[in-house]
């Protein structure tokens, strides 16, 4: 079994060869995502399972280099990163049905949470109705390097670039152009 990871560094494509017992873990990952989506009344499409599987594998493999998260078990990645990132925005959309084509800024995004999972979910499972573009703001250079890798995966799956990465502190950041419609943040200090 082989799985491809697409990295932006020097435009190389790395292929990861997995043993049979490791491929079982991968199919288990999609089962967990599917089960948790169903439990939380979220739409599940195989493509979201695939992209979240790549995201999780990249997160875990690059975590040693970038110190992205302390959450690395499969179940916790699904529940605490992917599901939690999506649910808040989905609840907001249910309360305000006029939300459409938003430009979103995720402040202190770290490894892309909550912005990237909710953008991927919207694009893949809701036909891109709510998220037009997402800006990811983080002051940590290593984390924005990881986000560049993630943006490449997103582009490959969606066929369009919806992610803009900013390596700045919020206090010193000046956005050029139109201001985002919606700001979100998770696990940041006082703003």
List keywords for this structure.
191 residues, alpha/beta, four-stranded parallel beta sheet, two-stranded antiparallel ribbon, 6 strands
Description:
By secondary structure, the chain is α/β, with parallel strands linked by helices. It is built from five helices and six strands. It has helices at residues 20-39, 46-66, 74-95, 115-125, 141-158, and strands spanning 2-6, 13-17, 102-107, 131-138, 163-167, 182-185. The strands form two sheets. A four-stranded parallel β-sheet has the order 5-4-3-6, with helices on one face. It has a two-stranded antiparallel sheet with strand order 1-2. The longest helix is centred in the middle third of the chain and has 22 residues, at 74-95. Mean pLDDT is 85; it is low at 1-26.
In short:
This protein is 48% helix and 17% strand. With 191 residues, it is α/β, with parallel strands linked by helices. The strands form two sheets. The chain has a four-stranded parallel beta sheet, with helices on one face.
What topology does this entry show?
Elements lengths: L1 E5 L6 E5 L2 H20 L6 H21 L7 H22 L6 E6 L7 H11 L5 E8 L2 H18 L4 E5 L14 E4 L6
Parallel strand pairs: 3-4, 3-6, 4-5
Antiparallel strand pairs: 1-2
């Amino acid at each position: 079994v082989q799985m491809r990871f697409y990295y932006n560094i020097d435009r190389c494509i790395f292929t990861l060869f997995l043993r049979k017992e490791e491929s079982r873990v991968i199919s288990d990952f999609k089962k967990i995502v599917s089960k948790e989506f169903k439990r939380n009344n979220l739409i599940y499409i195989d493509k979201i399972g695939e992209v979240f599987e790549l995201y999780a594998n990249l997160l875990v493999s690059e975590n040693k280099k970038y110190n992205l998260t302390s959450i690395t078990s499969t179940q916790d990645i699904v529940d605490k990163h992917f599901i939690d990132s999506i649910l808040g925005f989905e609840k907001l959309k249910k309360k305000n049905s006029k939300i459409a084509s938003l430009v979103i800024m995720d402040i202190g995004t770290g490894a892309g949470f909550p912005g990237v999972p909710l953008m991927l979910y919207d694009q893949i499972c809701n036909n891109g109705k709510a998220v037009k573009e997402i800006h990811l703001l983080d002051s940590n250079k290593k984390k924005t390097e990881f986000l560049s890798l993630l943006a490449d995966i997103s582009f490959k799956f969606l066929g369009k670039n919806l992610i803009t990465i900013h390596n700045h502190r919020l206090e010193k950041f000046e956005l050029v152009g139109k201001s985002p419609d919606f700001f979100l943040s998770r696990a940041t200090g006082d703003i």
